[in-house]
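call fold(seq) -> tokens
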Amino acid sequence: MKKWIIIGMVLLLFTGCGQTGGSKKGNGGPPADTNASGEARKDDGPQKSSPEGFSYENNGVKIPMNVDAAPIVEKLGKPANYFEAASCAFQGLDKVYTYNGFEIGTYPRGHKDFISTVTFLDDTVETDQGIAVGSTLDEVKAAYGKKFTNKGTSYEYRKGDTRLTFIIENGSVAQITYGAVVEGLEN
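ret:
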């Protein structure tokens, strides 16, 4: 099941790309600091994360959406795996850092990378409301309420510039993803 979640996350990150992406394993890559014309970028950021938005916390490290990824990745330490590919929506590279039980996706903006997603890979991690992979839909509704958007197996809650999405299969949570709302930020 973990393999399908990872495949799904990579496909979601790169849906709509007409370019061939590359991958690189390691502990980070060079920042994308030029635009399509080869000129230095001047825009170093979209917006600040909404204090009322969803965020994930792992071992005391808070991971909000739409914030500079560098200090968070540094605090979390070396990832178990790293992947990067040309971004479809932005100039530069989208990056995925895999840690024990979850992965972080980023998008480039100016000279920085910003948190775009946190996806749970298994039941070893949980939301601040105690929901994990394997929790029931009733537990999700009890924890987060009934104000969600339902599309097929997806139950999405929005708060500030974030969304929290639960994929439900056979009555239980198969995937949990925190996501940044980035509409309007594309290059």
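The chain has one domain: 2-11+54-180.
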